[in-house]
Amino acid sequence: MANISIFYKILIANSSIVVVGAIAGTYLTLRFGDNVESVLEFVLLFAMIGTLVSVVVNWMVLRATFQPLDELERTVDQVRQGNFSVRASKPDFGDPNIDALSQTMNGMLDTVERYRAQLHNLSMQVVSAQEEERKRIARELHDDTAQVLTAQLLRLKTLEATSAQLDADNLQQLIDMTAAALEDVRHMAYELRPPSIDDLGLHASVESLTAQFRERFGIPIAYHTEGSKRRFPSGIEIAMYRIVQEALTNVAKHANADSATVELGSDERFVWARVQDHGTGFDPMSVDRSDGSGLGLFGMQERTTLFNGKLKIVAAPGRGTTVTVRIPLPEHASINSNIPTPEVAP
Fold this sequence. Notes:
Elements: H1 6-32, H2 39-80, H3 96-162, H4 168-192, H5 195-199, H6 202-217, E1 221-226, H7 234-255, E2 260-266, E3 270-277, H8 295-306, E4 310-315, E5 321-328, E6 343-345
Parallel strand pairs: 1-2, 4-6
Antiparallel strand pairs: 2-3, 3-5, 4-5
């Protein structure tokens, strides 16, 4: 019956009911017909029984046949919620056309899952290459450009001390410009790749980052930690650091905040961070990526998704902004798991 279409299943079921009813009616008429006082009552009773049997049998056939459609609906709902690992099951009793539709959908989901895995691996390689390039540029800025500027600054100071013929004001201006350029290069090198993230880990790096933003922009930024300050996989540490860095950059440049708070914590399953400011806030729905204004938010979402995490941004004009990110640790993460869509809440 599994390979028979719904039309023939209903036809066979109803034909069987008619045949069985005819045989049973003939038998009962021959067996008890002489003892029945009212023929009408006998006919009505037999008609009621036949109708009841027909309804029950057709209900069972249709319910079993359309069960795969219910399964398909549940599968589509799961996919709509972001769970691409779900598959439509194949029942023992169903319509071959519906079964073919289920198999087609499962095949499409398999293809999507393969593409998502390939895209995930490619994105990881891109992020890794980007971080390696950041590290290389930071090393060159620190080892080459910064050293040249340092030597130039020392020569200018030596020249200032040994020569009385040079214009003191112009010489001091050159010294100040060189010192400012050196400071900018060092700051740029640190932003590209802070050495503390490789040597000391995520907690020390975020604490140092918070202190730098506090000193550089004059915004009171409180820093709190929860859980152990253990090390995490390098990719997760870098992703968390970049997300906090981008959130603090938005606080400094766009929020007009009078204060902010950075929280960093972890447990056996997750590492999480929260950046909250008491600034002007914004309307998340008004962010337009096409003009580049939303690239920072998009970058945070992409880094979060790469590690099967969840990003939540709660913001409203005049009420400040809260950015929360949570990333599962490797033993609790899987590329085939349900990856929630990063959420931007109003």
